[in-house]
Amino acid sequence: MQAKRLFSAFSALIIGALLLGACAPAASTAAPQTPQIIVQTVVVAGTSAVQTVVVPGTPQVQTVVVTATPPPAVPKTIDVLANWGGAEKDAFQKVLDGFTAKTGIPVNYESSRNLETLVRTRVAGGSPPDVVMEPRPGAIAEFVASNWLVPLDEPIGKEVLDPHALTMAFGDAYINLGKVNGTLFGLIFKTDSKSTFWYKPASFTSLGVQPPKTLDELMAIADKYKAAGKIPFAAGGKDGWPLTDYFENLYLRLAGADQYNALQLSHKVAWTDPLVKTALTDFTKFFQPGYNPGGPQGVLGTLFTDSIAQVFGPNPVAEMLYEGGFVGTIAIGQTNTSLKPVQDINFFTFPQVDPALGDPVVGGGDFAIMFKDTPEGRAFMQYLASKEAGEIFAGTNSISPNKLVDPTKFSSELRKTEFQQIANAKVFVFDGSDMAPSAFGGGCEFSLLQELVANPKNVNPIAQALEDCAKANY
């Protein structure tokens, strides 16, 4: 409308000028003609207009192009869902703020502990979110089967994520984690290691040992502690899930990633397989008499957080603790605030079982998945894959496996070391019990491994019970 008013005003000026010219005294003796003026206006795409003025009786045609500036487009707000609250939410919010500052695209963040239920409700109601940060690979596969997700590596040439840039930033282990049937649907953005074995450096120095590389070396250290009248390990077996993490690290280091996923994710390997039984036998080594406060029954009566205090509290009773990278945060922030990182508490990578398989990492993480293909959503996914986003996250001591991130961005030396373990891992697999059906991974696997702690000679019947439960639930 504004452009048309401009044209009308301009036309009036042209007409006025022509009429004044027509009223001026004629230099010719020819009879005057009644001027007929035709003004034609064409509006083109709302951005420019062509106005043609034709004066009959003369050879002149005047064309004027007027450009109208359209109003600036208002960026579309995108909806991002995750299950993070508290400090995790605050850390991610810094990434969201960085994205908005860079692109001008606002982000509406919504947190829910019932994330998958909320996602399904939104999709069923016709208002799917733009992006979800999903912690379970199994849920991603279910969403793909329902045809809800946008592929990130198709079509070729118009991919959401540039494959070259993705390979430069993330190792194959992390790219492959987000694939379903060979197509990339998830970008893993947040990771935590569960292959961290915690110890007290001063205690190792007093004992005259170095962090072990192999399981045999670790057990030799445990025996040396026991001979010195000290208790080697603490473990929070009452919670159940720490016991599954022991088994997962042992089996991965014995069988490799393909067999690990075939057992935990698809159940193509049986729990009665000989290598599974070997891993279960190795599992029992950690709970030998004299190896834990209170023996096996003490393990089964100890909560995870209490096991941290048994090693790193003001009145410790044990020397080492296996669990994930979050142990350092809890130990320093809650258990014993006088602890000095690296000096009083540190970790080594869970030891090798078969040296030929190296140092694979078991961990957890959260994937960015797209439910709507929009320019704003694409921009967000590309930002999450960038070094910039990873370094903002690192500034909060949160870990993205983007290997382009500068490690000096971490203010915590422990988290920096964990990042380097994760970023450099040639093999990274997801927590097995988290990939399994909940009735198995969060049910009978917990209870049967607790039974194995109490009865370490019952490897065969417990392996059979695990297999029976898996058959019923996969």
Question: What do you see in this structure?
Answer:
β1 (38-44) and β2 form a beta hairpin. Residues 1-32 and 37-49 have low confidence and may be disordered. With 474 residues, the protein is α/β, with parallel strands linked by helices. It has helices at residues 2-23, 86-103, 115-124, 137-145, 163-169, 172-177, 201-207, 215-227, 241-255, 257-264, 274-285, 295-300, 304-312, 326-335, 375-384, 387-394, 413-423, 432-435, 438-454, 459-473; strands at residues 38-44, 48-54, 61-67, 78-82, 107-111, 131-134, 179-180, 183-184, 187-193, 196-199, 233-234, 320-322, 346-349, 361-370, 428-430. α9 (241-255) crosses α10 (257-264). It has 3 domains: 1-8 and 38-71, no CATH class; 78-193 and 365-402, 3-Layer(aba) Sandwich (D-Maltodextrin-Binding Protein, domain 2); 196-361 and 432-473, 3-Layer(aba) Sandwich (D-Maltodextrin-Binding Protein, domain 2). The longest helix is centred in the N-terminal third of the chain and has 22 residues, at 2-23. The protein is globular and about 85 Å long. Helix content is 46%, strand content 15%. Strands 4, 5, 6, 9, 14 and 15 form a 6-stranded mixed beta sheet that branches. The chain has a 4-stranded mixed beta sheet with strand order 11-12-10-13. It has a 3-stranded antiparallel beta sheet with strand order 1-2-3, with helices on one face. It starts with a helix and ends with a helix.
